[in-house]
Amino acid sequence: MSMEDGAPKKRRALEHRAFVYGGTDHFLAVTEPFLRSGLEAGEAVVAVARRSNLSALHDLFGDGAGIEWVDAAGFYLHPVRTLRDYQALVNKFAPRPVCALAEPVWTGWDERQTLEWIRYESLINEVFKDSGARALCPYDGEALPPRIIEEARRTHPMVVTDGPALASGAYVAPAAFGANCDRHRRFTRPDDAEYFAVDDADLHALRSFVAERALLHGLAKRPAQNLVTAVNEVAANAVQHGLPPVGMWIWRDGPELLCEIGDNGLWRPAPSALTGFIPPRSALQRGFGLWTVRLLVDLVELRAGWDGTFVRLHIR
Fold it and tell me: Which parts of the sequence belong to the Histidine kinase/HSP90-like ATPase domain (predicted)?
């Protein structure tokens, strides 16, 4: 790291822009100069896009351009794991800043998963705020639902359409954005959900119960083990920091198995909307346990209110 007046030179702030495009020609007209600017600046250039867009760009640049090509379909599988993988890229190339073309995948998700991917785009602003990275996120304005385009303007400080990037008047900071996502969660539980009372800190019986039910519901061995580990982490936290009674419900919902752990306490971490989403620097950092739980299962939903704190785990 270069030094100036005896102090480390601070990295520039993240540049995070949404790009709403219409057709392949428009896509290439903006993304090609963006990637070239990264190459000319000596940045680590990564292109993550849909296969058709990736192929069109590759035809322009060829194999020896110095760009790392990544198919978005294999990269955007789980929002928290994708955050982790982008962080690994930033760390891999440090101290060189990253220039990333990052086209999210918006098909194949249910409403809850879509909400988490929208939240993911907001979290980028917090996770990489001091990384010096530049990110351009293409959104297909002709194919995507209007709601997704609208959310892009709320999760990106700058938006590119036909001309230069302009500040988005709809942009919402990550903590406020995440809090709004959580406020709109609605937790309903079926009457036939099985209940297990967690009476003490010895969670062996709970782990055995979850393992049996997971296999009974048809989960493969690895997802079943992941669910047991996740339930154990959340329940241990509820026993240590929550208020009794502590309990867990488990039920099947279509292709998903759900576990919900609840206690009578009102958990108010600050800022709660970012807890467990920001990649921790070590196992000792606050939020490490919830971050690990998010990596283990497909979706984590958290609700804290007058009736207690509830963490719901989804796994397919």
Answer: 197-313
Q: Nearest CA to 16 among 191, 140, 173?
A: 173
User: Which H helix or E strand runs over 239?
Assistant: helix 221-241
Summarised one tens digit per residue, pLDDT across range 242-300 is 899 999 999 999 889 999 999 988 776 555 557 777 777 765 666 688 899 999 999 99
What is the token pair recorded at 57?
A: 């760009």
- Whether 28 and 93 have beta carbons less than 8 Å apart is answered as no
Q: Are strands 194-198 and 246-253 parallel, antiparallel or unpaired?
A: antiparallel
Instruction: Report residue 20: phi and psi, to 5°.
Output: -95, 115
The separation between the first and the last C-alpha atoms of the chain, rounded to the nearest angstrom, is 45
User: In the numeric block, which tokens belong to residue 76?
Assistant: 């955007």
Could you give the CA distance from residue 298 to residue 300 in angstroms, rounded to a whole number? 7
Is the domain covering 3-183 a CATH 3.10.350.10 domain?
no
* Cβ(265)–Cβ(198) below 8 Å: no
CB-CB contact of 57 with 32 (8 Å):
yes
194-315 homologous superfamily: Histidine kinase-like ATPase, C-terminal domain (3.30.565.10)
